[in-house]
Write a structure and sequence with these properties.
This protein has 113 residues and is of the alpha+beta class. It has 3 helices and 6 strands; from the N terminus they run H-E-H-E-E-H-E-E-E. A hairpin with a 2-residue loop joins strand 4 and strand 5.
Length: 113
């Protein structure tokens, strides 16, 4: 679904220190979330930096409770870079959050490097 977004960013065309390995420079990982933080809260905090395509708070399959992290996908690399610079290590619902560029999901069969 988002494969067209992943092609836009590489080390030659992007001034944002993005690499082809990273996949997309417009998707951010947000860690350290309060277990009470939900998708509307996360979207509300990040939408001031640009248009958001998708927000996802990762939840436990059995309990349905947040695992304390999520992802925010912006429509542009610039919006994501602005959000990363502004929101990393900031307080959100009483917790210092960590914001980084999202890494591609690894296959279960891939060896760690």
């Amino acid at each position: 679904m988002f494969s067209s977004l992943f092609v836009r960013c590489n080390s030659i065309t992007s001034p944002l220190r993005c690499f082809a390995i990273r996949g997309s420079c417009s998707k951010l990982f947000v860690g350290g979330l309060s277990y009470d933080t939900n998708e509307p809260v996360l979207k509300n905090e990040f939408e001031k930096y640009g248009e958001i395509i998708e927000v996802k708070v990762i939840c436990d399959h059995k309990s349905g409770k947040s695992k304390g992290y999520g992802f925010v996908l912006f429509d542009s690399e610039e919006a994501a870079a602005s959000a990363l610079a502004s929101m990393d290590n900031q307080l959100l619902e009483g917790r210092n959050i960590r914001v980084e560029y999202a890494q591609p999901k690894r296959s279960l069969y891939q060896n760690p490097k």
